[in-house]
């Protein structure tokens, strides 16, 4: 089959690799219908994350059709349509039962511990626990929206939940990538009255406004902080969604959180520090982490099926698997928000 292999920073290729095989009785193999490139794939692409000497089989978001199941897989059969969350999990341990699948005692990440999804097929560990079965084959028009449930929409929702967004509150979203834009959708769903997006690119701003952002702050650093304070009567937002992962983004987030407010962090941190003074003296609650997107599928899928939310609009470029290098370049240069890939 064909799969994407990241060999070195900027060097990404589609290559012929051995077909995935069932290795454990709890495995399944899925044929990929759609997959996509994630903002977090850009970290290794830019040389800021490990790649490994053999290259990295990257990608962690997919909708697929089950091709084969191991003898201990009981809830799935060949032909089932499934959503593949970015993290695999057994579905049975105490953390899975509490809905925190990303803390599963058997967890791992696609494109990390196991081969990635930017390929024609993927091996799925703990298939019963990991995969989310769709009631029927997905309609072509719904595919982009459903695909966001495997990561960005679930992650944006996690940011909003852990930032404790509640009806009537003011929310600020740091970032204008796909997760941040989905964070706007989530904040609106949870009843936020005012949603301030910190972002600069005109097409992303337009989408944020379509999703429910009421205010846009395009300045950066101190000026951005001053603008948000001005909009919020001097005190900052009740809930802040940090959807970037850089030190500057976190610094901005803590400075625009009002005393007693909360931050939901979902940008993968590529720095060490959480500012101690301001978070302590302002009683700021800091939550967030890898989103248990598997748990949120039950909550968000009905909204998509009913056409209430349209998170798939974050895909503004669609390419074939063979063209994937072009997709990485487009995202790296911020020419595209998020790229859909059809094997
Ligand atoms: Zn992702
Ligand atoms: Zn578990």
Essential attributes:
29% helix, Rossmann fold, binds zinc ion, 2 domains, 6-stranded parallel beta sheet, Quinone Oxidoreductase, Chain A, domain 1, 7-stranded mixed beta sheet, alpha/beta, 343 residues
Order of helices and strands: EEEHEEEEHEEHEHHEHEHEHEHEHEHEHE
Which structural class matches the secondary elements? alpha/beta
CATH topology value of the largest domain: Quinone Oxidoreductase, Chain A, domain 1
CATH superfamily caption of the largest domain: Medium-chain alcohol dehydrogenases, catalytic domain
- Overall pLDDT confidence: 96
Rough outline: globular
State the major sheet. 7 strands, mixed
Task: Characterise the protein shown here.
The protein has 343 residues and is α/β, with parallel strands linked by helices. The chain folds into 2 domains: 2-151 and 292-342, Quinone Oxidoreductase, Chain A, domain 1 (Alpha-Beta Complex); 155-288, Rossmann fold. The chain has 12 helices and 18 strands. The protein has helices at residues 42-45, 94-97, 127-130, 143-147, 152-162, 178-189, 202-211, 221-231, 247-255, 276-281, 293-305, 324-332; strands spanning 2-8, 11-16, 28-37, 56-57, 62-69, 81-84, 87-88, 108-109, 121-124, 132-133, 170-174, 194-198, 215-217, 237-242, 257-265, 285-288, 315-320, 338-342. The strands form 4 sheets. Strands 3, 5, 6, 9, 10, 17 and 18 form a 7-stranded mixed beta sheet that branches. The protein has a 6-stranded parallel beta sheet with strand order 13-12-11-14-15-16, with helices on both faces. The protein has a 3-stranded antiparallel beta sheet with strand order 2-1-4, with helices on one face. Strand 1 (2-8) and strand 2 (11-16) form a beta hairpin. Helix 5 crosses helix 6 (178-189). The longest helix has 13 residues, at 293-305. It is globular, with a radius of gyration of 20 Å. The mean pLDDT is 96. Residues 38, 40, 60-61, 86, 151 line the site of one zinc ion.
